[in-house]
Amino acid sequence: MVHYSYYQTRVTGGKPSSTSVYSGRTVTFSGSVQQNAGSGWSAVKNQHVYLVFRPYKSKTWTAKTSVKTNSRGTYRISARATRSGTWCVVYLPDTHHVDAEGPMTYVYLH
Predict the structure, then answer these.
(1) How many C-beta atoms surround the C-beta of residue 45 within 10 A?
(2) Can you say whether residue 40 is alpha, beta or left, with left for phi > 0 and alpha for psi between -120 and 50 degrees?
(3) Looking at the chain, which terminus has fewer C-beta neighbours within 10 angstroms, N or C?
(4) pTM attached to this predicted model
(5) pLDDT digit string (tens) for 46-61?
(6) For the residues of the chain, what is the DSSP string, one character each?
């Protein structure tokens, strides 16, 4: 019999630096990725998080960039905004964690 353990995960923060920007400006997101192994929340260290984007009136998400969390599980990730649309920070883990995402936030372009 094989037993697998899956840890609950969450992305904290994940709100953009601004929800209204000029075209070509950078939108920055920061926060942390945490796991709960049964004894409370702790940092998910040195793991990739992705910044994904869905343009206005589109159904397709695109990964814009990725960064690794640091030794405290925190991240800071940025991308250029060239269209209005929805942004989200996503953690796509290994086989022992559950996927997690931050809030989906619409960013308007001037």
Answers:
(1) 14
(2) left
(3) N
(4) 0.89
(5) 999 999 999 999 999 9
(6) ------BEEEEEEEEES-SEE-TT-EEEEEEEEEEESSSSEEE--S-EEEEEEEETT----EEEEEEE--TTSEEEEEEE--S-EEEEEEE---TTB--EE---EEEEE-
